[in-house]
Amino acid sequence: MAAVKQNYGEKVLIQFEDFANHNAFDLLARYGTTHLVFNDDIQGTASVVLAGLVAALKLVGGTLAEHTYLFLGAGEAGTGIAELIALEMSRQTKTPIDECRKKIWLVDSKGLIVSTRKESLQHFKKPWAHEHEHVGNLLDAVNAIKPTVLIGTSGKGQTFTQEVVEAISSFNEMPIILALSNPTSQAECTAEQAYTWSKGRAVFATGSPFDPVEYNGKTHVPGQANNAYIFPGFGLGVVMSGAIRVHDDMLLAASEALAQQVTQENFDKGLIYPPFSNIRKISAHIAANVAARAYELGLASRRPRPKDLVKYAESCMYSPIYRNYR
């Protein structure tokens, strides 16, 4: 890390990818205050999922703080997403983040994370240990917590069983179900299962691509919560503003920009992400929003601030179009 900074300067952006849980959190905490670093597994995943949730609220109604969240999986992705949701909730409601975390529950391999397990938990799970009796499995947790949002980051396929999906659908008109694990074989459930078991009522997105599903004469198109929506635009926004540190508010800015790109036409199909075919336009808007937040936070070093940040972002992007000389 010292050598990279020495060779390339203070403003080189270092992206961490695929580190083991214990290393990922430690490295981000260790270098986040001294280097310009971004962990895609923790922060990129969190930002793209938060964007999907913000968009989904336009379909199901309510604010982030009015919903209850249950995660299956409490590693980098799960805890990273949970923390960013709590952060945005805190920002919207002006409530302390500790209070906001109480709306978010996590299930790991030993069951619901509760306060009686606190002593044996890894440090990144401890903020999510709430007061509750022991619950040993996901189905019991769904029935006990009654979440409106179910998020899978477990890396284990077919864990959102028919009983689980039917349970969450029994007390939600439109349950939000995100089966985020990759590859397709490890997805917590398939699109067909989610729509069939929820009787076509689920707002559904995945980490892996799934084909549209027809249920009762209506075609449902599952969105894909892919980090590639976030990290190119996020990185561009950081670099083009000359930011010297990554701040959580910049991740929130990326989520806001992505959620704003979802059109009514997308919502009508049940999509909570814009089509990936528009990725360059999406990335330019994310970059502009991230850069704007960096300027607001006093973290940007590029002066003067460009008048039109979207146009400036587009001018900084490569266009892989080459003249034909023959």
Automatic annotation (TrEMBL):
Listed GO MF terms? malate dehydrogenase (decarboxylating) (NADP+) activity; metal ion binding; NAD binding
Q: Where does a divalent metal cation bind?
A: 17-18, 41
Q: What is the name attached to this protein's record?
A: Malic enzyme
Please list the cofactors this protein needs.
Answer: Mn(2+); Mg(2+)
Keyword vocabulary terms for this entry: Metal-binding, Oxidoreductase
Please give the Gene3D superfamilies that the UniProt record associates with this protein.
Answer: Malic enzyme, N-terminal domain, NAD(P)-binding Rossmann-like Domain
Report the sequence similarity comment from the record.
Answer: Belongs to the malic enzymes family.
Oxidoreductase in keyword set: yes
The Malic enzyme NAD-binding domain extends over 42-295
What does this protein's record comment on cofactor binding?
Divalent metal cations. Prefers magnesium or manganese.
Origin organism lineage: Eukaryota, Viridiplantae, Streptophyta, Embryophyta, Tracheophyta
Query: What species is this protein from?
Result: Aegilops tauschii subsp. strangulata (Goatgrass)
